[in-house]
Amino acid sequence: MYGLKRTKRKIWLWLLPAVAAALVCCIWAYLLRGSRRIRAERDILPDEMVFYNQLDGRWKEDRLGASGYDMESSGCLTTCIAMITGLQDVPQSFDPGELNALFSDEQCYDAEGNLQWGEVERALSVTAVRRGPMEGRELEELLLEGVYPIVRVRMHGLGAYHYVLLVGSCDGEFLCIDPLNREKKLLGLSGFGNRIYAVRYLEEGKGR
Prior knowledge:
This protein is α+β, with helices and mostly antiparallel strands. The protein has one domain (36-204): Cathepsin B, Chain A (Alpha-Beta Complex). The chain contains six helices and eight strands, in the order αβααααβαββββββ. The strands form two sheets. Strands 2-8-3-4-5-6 form a six-stranded antiparallel sheet, covered by helices on one side. A two-stranded antiparallel sheet has the order 1-7. The longest helix is centred in the N-terminal third of the chain and has 30 residues, at 2-31. 32% of the residues are buried.
């Protein structure tokens, strides 16, 4: 009986690494579901940039509408849109504080601080396009047209969802501005695993 127990213990100890590896693979697959790994095929270097970050003391404590969330914790998407208004041909440009005030006044946020895209279109007189993860060549085409895509990523590749603004590409990698980065510099998308989960961008003209 003692020998049988030792044998079972050895089998379990042998199986434990395999079970742990399988569990890690399952968690990894779950976190990456619905994503696309993208690579740039050409170099597209931006001519001029607009750098804003959601941690700026001028607006970091501003609430998103009537929600319990503020710019510092949840303002990445609004900050990206503010940068777009300074880069693309839209009716008016805003800094993140001004844009958040407009979105709040126009009731563009729901109770959880999420943007309501129909209201965003109306407030900015643009068409807001929402898509799933696009291919790299499609994103390059947008950049060449002067359209700057906002992409949903995961922090450090597998963490919480976050939004960054794609502005170019170089050496096979897309370049982005991260609203959480206080430094005015471009970052490689490799910092987010080169994976995207959704795309948002603005087009000139009244929303549908």
